[in-house]
Amino acid sequence: MSKVLTVFGATGLQGGSLLHYLLKRPDVLNIYRLRGITRDLSKPAAIALKEAGVEMLQGDMDNEASLSAVLAGSTAVFSMTNFWEKASAVSEVAQGKAIANAAVGAGAELIVWSSLPNMTAMSNGKLLGAKHFDSKAEVEAYIRTLPIQSAFFMPALFMQMMTHMFKPKLNDQGELVFRVTWSKPCPMIDITDTGKFIVPILLNPNKYNGKRFIGATAFYSPAELVETWKKVTGKEIKLGQASDEAWGQDIPPEIMEVLKNSSGLIEDYSYYGPSGQEDLEWTLAQMDDPPTTWAKFVEANEPWF
Fold first, then answer.
1. How many C-beta atoms lie closer than 10 Å to residue 168's C-beta?
2. φ, ψ for residue 251, nearest 5 deg
3. Is residue 162 within 8 Å of 179, Cβ to Cβ?
4. Cα–Cα nearest to 113, from 86, 63, 161, 149
5. What is the enclosing helix (H) or strand (E) of 133?
6. Is residue 292 classed as helix, strand or coil in its secondary structure?
7. Residue 109 in contact with residue 76, Cβ under 8 Å?
8. Dist CA 78 CA 15 (whole Å)
9. I need a labelling partner for 138 at 20 to 30 A (CA). Which of 36, 119, 172, 239 fits?
10. How many CB atoms are located within 10 Å of the residue 294 CB?
11. pLDDT, tens digit, for every residue of 53-104?
12. Would the pTM of this model clear 0.90, i.e. be above it?
């Protein structure tokens, strides 16, 4: 009888991408039967996954009884939470711990948690605005105390954010300008690649017990992003400075607040801290399917302007 992999956020970017990728991996399907958890089984995304062969169940991260029910019989669990749904660190920590507790209670052997670095600790208290980093890190620390194998997926800045929030905009002179709050290289991921990072863990949980997988293709500077846009689109794009007047109209207020209060995240701490590049190189060496480059992402998402 095959093992059961239960995936939270099954209709979202991370969980949905993971399930769709695994459906194309016979080596994983020979080991695991796929189960997806969502709050709304009537969503088109949930229906499509069910039709593709995924067992879809309704679950609520805020309801521990429902978590125990949907995790029954699970061997492995992919767990993630959406901080921005409530913009509450307290809520995210409670949800993450509840899933972990339910996984242990169900007798699961492995939990893969979508985590992030503890920015407050990394910066020695200098950066206090990245609450969604710290809350995920708190859950990770808790999972490490539980009697279950664990591994941690650490996603970088989503390339998808460049299609709306950070997309170059026309200025008053009719010029396309790309504005962000950082100037140094930032790690980036096409989040539809989530499965590429998770597969090695699923195939060899003993080897990767306690390990962190850096969820990124590479570190890209703003200048590199602009040059790729120019090359692919043929448009002239300038690199500008972020300002309240000319930047941020497509960024939700709660995210804008985080950007303003954690401006040193990339400039001073490279998102992942001093070992980020080395840790990424290790991660990429474990993968059998290379992640999408920024150039390939830009090409695949034409037209931009």
1. 22
2. -105, 125
3. no
4. 149
5. helix 131-143
6. coil
7. yes
8. 8
9. 36
10. 20
11. 999 999 988 888 889 999 999 999 999 998 777 768 889 999 999 999 999 9
12. yes
